Amino acid sequence: MAIDPSTLPDLVRDPVRDPPCLPQLRQRYAELGAEFHSTHAPQGLPQPRLRLVSDDAARLLGLRAPDDDTDAREAWARMFSGNQAAAEGGAISTVYAGHQFGNWAGQLGDGRAHLLGEAMSRDPAQSLGHAWWEVQLKGAGPTPYSRRGDGRAVLRSSIREFLCSEAMWHLGIPTTRALCLVDSDLPVRRETLETAAVVTRLCPSFVRFGHFEHFSYSGRHDSLRRLVDYTVARLHPELADAANPALELLREVARATGSLIARWQCVGFVHGVMNTDNMSVLGWTIDYGPFGFMDAFDPGYTPNTTDAHGRYAWARQPGVARWNLLALAQALLPLIGDEQAARDAVEEFAESFMVAMRDGMQAKLGLGEPRDDDPDLVQDWLDLLADCRADWTLSHRLLAQVVASPAGQLPPGLSAQFESRPRRLQDWLERLRLRLHELDAAQRAQRADSMLRANPCYVLRHHLAQHAISQARQGDFSAALRLHRVLCDPWREQPGCEDLAAPAPPDAGPPVLSCSS
């Protein structure tokens, strides 16, 4: 539905005269009732400092990024640390449950998240059709669902979430956004003593699979129905008149999740903790904990030190997503009523994933329209990558040069990735040349250009994030700012940023992170 700009409030405020610097927020989720949330004010941070801002995310809400204006930066720091009230009715934290590592965990909830409310989008190019976006603080103190936790986020994890949220967005992968990062000298105990930070996250909805599980498995089916009706009205109003809205909602979630997981796979992203309480009903990426972008390709790689059996490894992400959807289907079954219909709705995931994964790999390898032998060609490429532990991002990026000039010399960087199997690489490349033999020079150049738009030059490599974190801990955010700028334009090679596109140093090792990260 088109929005008449004349009906919108003035969202671009002067942060000196009008310190809240946020549009008017509404707490529509709170209208579901007290059993869905708790009203609890953020604790905020002592002497907060605004460190990182996403200009794009600010424009989404119609906000003016503060730049070097000291007063404006202080106003943002107060607001987005939780030090200053943002919404009428107060901040809320929502209750949900979930399966963690395949086991029922019972009641969970927003243990360190405060939902400030919803703001109307002012940028249709970024809104993805969602007129209202929720604004949430992560790390602003304990909530009733903190389960003996401190409700805090540390600078280390906050930098990773800020950078990865915006990196994924610019890779075209549906994700929560990161508006800004505020830090403080407040000490926080994790594995060691660290300092606190708060990330402000934006999303059309933070409803998770676990929200439905909470009300279904506790037998509160009237509340479950209210949640389904709310979610449908909020995200899929076209389903409101369906014969079975819960069933149609499940179908939509399955399709969106299938597409999402395929996009993760194609950029070598491993979420690391795909519990049902970390799965978005939008089918978007949410909760950046122990994630990783693969350097050396290993289908069994997981970045999570807690994941001893590799449940959430790269190759297992599709299967886990389907398992989570079955858990969601079970939660919705009291409303769906037909077990087979629920199972059939979940199977929409497989079709959506296979189509998106096929199309993604066709684009990455420059194959164009699918042909019968392409699945074997793609699988053999993946096997070769795994056997040589070749760099996922760099190998695909350099392959475009081979497609552009098939008779030319191999790029040295590509040969280096496969130095343990040069003959196998040559054999596979010959098959690729035969597959593309009918293309003339102009068509090859066009195909190679398309590959550069499917294979990023820059991703958030672990060693780069660690360097930015190390510098930030010393009060120097220049590395994080530089990395952020590059990740917002990941497809184009940027002069002077060759180090950010290079593979990890040989001694770096794969990313291994705890859930506290």
Number of alpha- plus pi-helical segments: 18
Arithmetic mean of pLDDT = 93
The outline comes out as globular
Whole-number total of structural domains: 3
Give start-end ranges of low-pLDDT stretches.
1-20
Topology as a string of helices (H) and strands (E): EEHHEEEEHEEHEEHHHEEHHHHHHHHHHH
* Helicity, as a percent range: 40-55%
What is the strand tally? 12
Rounded radius of gyration (Å) = 23 Å
What structural class do the secondary elements suggest? Answer: alpha+beta
Please describe the biggest sheet, giving its number of strands, its sense, and whether it closes into a barrel.
6 strands, antiparallel
Spatial separation of the terminal alpha carbons: 40 Å
**β-sheet strand percentage:** 5-15%
